[in-house]
């Protein structure tokens, strides 16, 4: 029996105060796959992730996680199904220390190893910063902390929103390497990115969005050949 997709959207529409942000969006993230969601600012990428997380509600359409309908479930129940969202911006508690951020990540987790040990094993750079408040870390260190917190929740479906924003390429490379390892270990990944080539380089499939609509879908090589990514993102690399 073919395994069910980790995540599926079927005809999802979302509006903000009457203004359509997503229109009839359908998407599949197969189990164990990495899917890149690409598109210019305002295309609706973050709205899609927030809708999947249950933070905002779809007005139409269905969302499935491992075959179960979730679009009416509260966000905490969706999170408990293993859907973990690293939001746009820095997903850390800025006034707490790195150690406190790591400790708080695991309150919902069963069979915890030492969360501080686990987090610093993932990103050794955090080990030297444990007593520092997260808001005073560099952008790259904050994203490492955000990703460490997300991974300690043992996600089945991980959604990452523009984690590379404003970071040096070498740091982006480290974060992507960690994501790549997790996909190899079986996580399903939905990655929203501005670094189109970096995202397509690790993705099995890509979706291109424009103004709330999916305008192209395919394997990275097909997307590159059709050129719509560049057309919609104005050649951003
Ligand atoms: N909280 C909000 N209230 C009203 N409109 C919003 C809100 N968030 C996003 N939008 C609008 O929805 C559209 C999609 O935004 P967004 O999902 O943030 O796009 P992206 O992440 O692709 O840049 C944009 O037109 C944006 O202005
Ligand atoms: Mg966004």
Structure description:
By secondary structure, the protein is an alpha/beta fold. The N and C termini lie far apart (39 Å). Helix 4 crosses helix 5 (139-152). The model has no long low-confidence stretch (mean pLDDT 92). The radius of gyration is 17 Å and the shape is globular. The protein has one domain (7-233): 3-Layer(aba) Sandwich (Rossmann fold), CATH 3.40.50.300. The strands form 2 sheets. Strands 6-7-8-3-9-10 form a 6-stranded mixed beta sheet, sandwiched between helices. The chain has a 4-stranded antiparallel beta sheet with strand order 2-1-4-5, with helices on one face. Helix content is 34%, strand content 26%. It contains 9 helices and 10 strands.
Strand content: 25-35%
Helix and strand content put the structural class at: alpha/beta
- Rounded mean pLDDT is 92
Main pleated sheet: 6 strands, mixed
Please identify which CATH superfamily we are dealing with: P-loop containing nucleotide triphosphate hydrolases
Q: Looking at CATH, which topology would you report? A: Rossmann fold
Number of helices: 9
Residues in helices, as a percent range: 25-40%
Per DSSP E runs of 2 or more residues, the count of β-strands stands at: 10
Radius of gyration from the alpha-carbon trace, in angstroms:
17 Å
Strand order of the largest sheet: 6-7-8-3-9-10
SSE ordering:
EEEHEEHEHHHEHEHEEHH
The CATH C-level class name: Alpha Beta
What separation lies between the terminal Cα atoms? 39 Å
Globular, elongated, flat, extended or rod-shaped: what is the shape? Answer: globular
CATH architecture title: 3-Layer(aba) Sandwich
Q: Give the domain tally.
A: 1
